[in-house]
Design a protein that fits this description.
Elements: H1 3-14, H2 19-26, H3 34-41, H4 51-55, H5 60-68, H6 74-88, H7 96-100, H8 106-110, H9 123-131, H10 147-206, H11 211-224, E1 235-239, E2 244-246, H12 272-283, E3 285-294, E4 297-311, E5 316-323, H13 325-387, E6 391-396, E7 399-403, H14 405-411, H15 415-418, H16 423-427, H17 432-445, E8 453-459, E9 465-477, E10 480-489, H18 508-520, H19 525-544, H20 549-559
Antiparallel strand pairs: 1-2, 1-5, 3-4, 4-5, 6-7, 6-10, 8-9, 9-10
Helix pairs in contact: 1-2, 1-6, 5-6, 10-11, 10-13, 14-19, 18-19, 19-20
């Protein structure tokens, strides 16, 4: 939390902001300032450079009172300090020992206070952690699961999308743009030629020149007009019949009927000039694409696009066209350039991809080695816990998340039964000493008490009472506070010195029979072991009472 957020909270709870106290709690020492010199001059038993260990703990209250006692009351300082620290550590008030034992890390402090903390270990995690991981199928069994292929597929997909976009999207757009520019150019040039004809039309209307002379001069002017990079692009004129009025390169067509003039001598499907007349009749202008003689070379034909515009007064059609060969050349040039860029990008991506794959392989190997080491560590920890003579419970927020086999054998309860919410009341007898232990455990689970050690008495599932030493210690798993509770049976030097030990006059034979009956009715392995543990106490009592060794051997043999 920020200083302002801490101050807002204490102001809400206690009516004081005390931002100076909050800054002091979160502040670092000035290594070269007066505060540093004064601190280092004192004899302290902690590292003054660790601001969290020094000030995020109960022990910081005394110095806080000394620092701010002239401004705030001791109770106000205590409220501000404890509220600040509890807000930082999810309601827990740590001691300096929590930091010094290495389990209470700074990472826990930096966790977002609004993040939902998960359980320490759920059932599946417990199975993995304490029972060992089951054999996982190798990633090599499925090609799609390999890390390298998971990199290759997206890369190849990106390249395919890139090429597809170029071929089916970018190139058509470029080609359409170039054709549009050609069309605009043809329209503007034809309008220029028509304006020449319009001038002679006006002269003929005014009577300055005869119709025949006006048409002849207009045709000559249009015939002389040229444009294009080689100055070989031209204009032509037909009438609405259609009949050729003027063509600068095809004088053989002059005054010829063009009604049956087709695009190709071998085809009779596309009468070019008839289609041009239709365009003028329908919309006074228009574009048409067809095959035509290549400029002034009658032996070659090429795709051409023509624009025509009508002169209504004389019933003329004035047109000009350009070959589309240069458009195709531009497209081909653009394609070759894009393909070269594509090849370069592909090679670069391939090199990067191979490098990433090589690095991922190395990381995979390190990860596998780490996993093997982790599995080995888990197995060793499991062996260590299971071979212990003490019973262990791992608790988080008052909930039992793990108990070892030794505890199952000692109590006769299964793991599922021990995870019951009411198990704590079932485990402890009604002895007066146990009430203190239960009270301590409940306070411990709600973070209101410190870990401690007690002598207590627990009750097994079969009702047998066992004297134990109960020890608690704090742990942090998954950044959540929990406790380890150990149950160590008491082996007393004077046999039979339990809370309710058997008297010397006990009927040993009857007790032995009850043990055998419990074993016959046992519901689990733990129940049987717990029943056999009673035999140990019985033998001790018989030894203390001076029973002959042969009787002891007979009892043990009969029971087993």
């Amino acid at each position: 939390m920020k200083i302002s957020e801490h101050a807002d909270r204490t102001e809400h709870l206690y009516g004081i902001r005390a931002e100076d106290i909050h800054r002091w709690i979160d502040g670092f020492f000035d290594y070269s300032g007066q505060g540093h010199n004064e601190t280092m001059a004192k004899k302290v038993d902690f590292d003054p450079y660790s601001h969290r260990r020094f000030r995020h703990c109960k022990e910081a209250l005394a110095e806080a009172i000394q620092e701010f006692g002239d401004k705030y009351t001791s109770q106000q300082i205590k409220d501000v300090l404890e509220t600040h620290i509890r807000d930082d550590y999810h309601g827990y008030l740590p001691t300096r020992a929590d930091f010094e034992n290495g389990s209470f890390t700074a990472k826990y402090h930096d966790t977002s206070h609004h993040a939902q903390l998960g359980d320490v270990l759920d059932e599946s995690e417990l199975a993995d952690y304490f029972s060992g991981l089951s054999a996982v199928q190798s990633e090599q069994d499925s090609p799609l699961s390999r890390f390298g292929l998971r990199i290759v597929l997206p890369t190849i997909s990106a390249i395919i999308l890139f090429v597809t976009a170029i071929i089916y999207l970018i190139l058509p757009l470029v080609e359409a743009s170039m054709v549009g520019q050609k069309q605009q150019m043809l329209k503007e040039l034809t309008s220029t030629a028509v304006s020449v004809v319009d001038r002679y039309v006006e002269m003929e209307k005014r009577g300055e020149i005869s119709l025949e002379e006006a048409q002849r001069k207009a045709a000559l002017d249009i015939k002389a007009m040229r444009y294009g990079p080689e100055n070989k692009d031209y204009f032509f004129i037909t009438d609405m019949h259609p009949r050729m009025i003027m063509h600068p390169y095809r004088s053989d067509l002059t005054n010829q009927d063009l009604t049956h003039y087709y695009e190709s001598e071998k085809s009779s499907d596309f009468p070019i000039f008839v289609e041009l007349v239709k365009l003028v009749e329908s919309s006074h202008e228009g574009y048409l694409e067809y095959l035509w003689q290549w400029k002034d070379d009658a032996t070659i034909t090429a795709p051409k696009m023509t624009y025509v515009e009508g002169v209504e007064e004389w019933q003329w059609v004035v047109g000009t066209g350009v070959y589309l060969e240069d458009v195709q050349q531009e497209i081909d040039h653009l394609e070759s350039t894009l393909y070269r860029v594509f090849v370069a990008i592909t090679l670069g991506l391939a090199l990067i991809m191979f490098y990433v794959i090589a690095q991922s392989k190395a990381m995979e190997k390190r990860k596998m080695r780490a996993e093997v080491a982790l599995h080995e560590a888990k197995n060793r920890y499991k062996a260590l816990v299971e071979s212990s003579n003490e019973g262990y419970i791992l608790e988080a927020d008052g909930k039992i998340v793990f108990s070892n086999t030794r505890l199952h054998q000692l109590l006769g309860y299964t793991d599922t039964e021990l995870k019951s919410q009411t198990i704590w009341q079932q485990l402890f007898s009604t002895a007066e000493q146990n009430s203190q232990v239960l009270e301590h455990l409940l306070k411990l689970f709600s973070h209101e008490a410190e870990p401690n050690e007690f002598e207590a008495q627990i009750v097994t599932k079969s009702g047998r009472e066992i004297d134990i030493i109960l020890s608690t210690s704090r742990i942090f798993l998954s950044e959540k506070l929990g406790h380890v509770i150990s149950f160590r049976p008491i082996v007393r030097k004077v046999y039979g010195a339990s809370f309710h030990s058997m008297t010397a006059s006990s009927d040993y034979r009857k007790t032995s029979s009850s043990i055998v009956a419990d074993i016959e009715q046992g519901e689990s392995h733990s129940h049987v072991v717990e029943s056999l543990n009673r035999l140990t106490d019985l033998i001790r009592e018989m030894i203390a009472a001076g029973t002959r060794p042969d009787h002891l051997r007979r009892l043990i043999g009969q029971t087993y």
